[in-house]
Amino acid sequence: MTASSPVLTPEEFEALRTNGLKVNYWAVCPRKLWLFAKGLRMEHASDRVLLGRLLHEGAYPHLARREVVLDELVRVDVLEGEGRVLEVKHSRRLAQAARLQVAYYLLYLRYLGAGELTGELRFPRERRREEVRLTAELEAQVSEALHGVAQVEALSAPPRVEFMPVCRSCAYAELCWG
Questions:
Q1: Residue 6 in contact with residue 147, Cβ under 8 Å?
Q2: Higher pLDDT, 112 or 49
Q3: Residue 123 to residue 95: CA distance in whole angstroms
Q4: CA–CA separation, 68 vs 79, rounded Å?
């Protein structure tokens, strides 16, 4: 798959484009996505989310980076002079969801005409980083996620989910499990 034969047509992408966090939430838990999509915001009450936000803001102060908000949907950190989209995460525990989120940002930027950029996940506490390139396979996963987000958002009630280990630290745990 090349840039000339995308998985999504520009029209499909336009119809499916969404908030980048929703792509991440879709990969983690469809119920969390549904609650977030319906306007229930629990992140403000979560210590883990606060720690993640502080980590994000304080990590890599020596890097010249800037936050870019696109269409009030996606908020990306861009490393100045490197053409990299940066995403800082607390740990690699949910790395697949983070990878999908960064891939979505890369696809979003491509549809805006930015060309082929590279993403980078950074896990400062673990002193690790991971490069993300928008391959045909990853682009297909983003397409699946965008369709999945639209399906979950269209539900009239939150989807049922099984308790998972990640539920223990989720900002929405009390809504789901009391």
A1: no
A2: 112
A3: 10
A4: 11
Quick: pLDDT tens for 11-69.
999 999 999 999 999 999 999 999 999 998 876 665 665 565 666 666 666 676 677 88
**What distance separates the 2 farthest-apart alpha carbons in the chain?**
49
Q: What is the sign, positive or negative, of the torsion defined by CA atoms of 138, 144, 150, 155? A: negative
- In the block, tokens 């994000």 appear at 56
Helix/strand/coil (H, E, C) string of the chain? CCCCCCCCCHHHHHHHCCCHHHHHHHHHCHHHHHHHHCCCCCHHHCHHHHHHHHHHHHCCCCCCEEEEEECCCEEEEEECCCCEEEEECCCHHHHHHHHHHHHHHHHHHHHCCCCCCEEEEEEHHHCEEEEECCCHHHHHHHHHHHHHHHHHHHCCCCCCCCCCHHHHHCCCHHHHHC
The pLDDT of residue 81 is 67
